Amino acid sequence: MKFIFNNVLVLSPHTDDVEFGAGATVHKLIKNGSRVSYVAFSICEESVPNGFPKDILDKEVRLSTAKLGIKNEDVITLRYKVRKFSYARQDILEDLVKIRAKAGPFDLVLVPSLHDIHQDHEVICREGIRAFKNTTLLGYELGWNIIHFDTQCFSVIGDIDLNAKIAAIQEYKSQGHRKYSDPDIIKSLAKVRGLQAGCDYAEAFEVIRLFM
Description:
This protein is an alpha/beta fold. The chain is built from six helices and seven strands; from the N terminus they run E-H-E-H-E-H-E-H-E-E-H-H-E.
């Protein structure tokens, strides 16, 4: 079954989460004509490695999302503190409602997995569901934060999409020390999901809510 998503919103608790979880799919959507709006709720100023400016991730996320085809004016960065999102649930929900009013309605919203154990990711998932309860919602996969993941939906991706995802992630020079940034790991997961989906490469998503 093919779906057409004209207006898409992707919610990234921290800069780079969407790129890891759904970067190739975002590239494919834009390639096929979708408009994609990207919201990062934190630029993680408290945890930037020594030697980098505190606002480096605000710059890197714009370079990264450009690799996926997202327009700079469709990238929003907010300043919530890392691991403190639970204290600001209502503010986050109100931000989402404002974004919905300004840039919506959306055909598809991507959020972190329902089973993501990172406290900030859990907040964005749940508040995303509250703000967009009448929209198709899919949860993306961040393997290092997930104990259980329901592979209910697969997005078939091509070499171009996968390479764009890897290129986007490589724009995060300040985060290059993280093992999951390794292109071989990124490609290996895409191969595994492709095997499950009967294609070369894929990204997997949980179906949180589906409107046909």
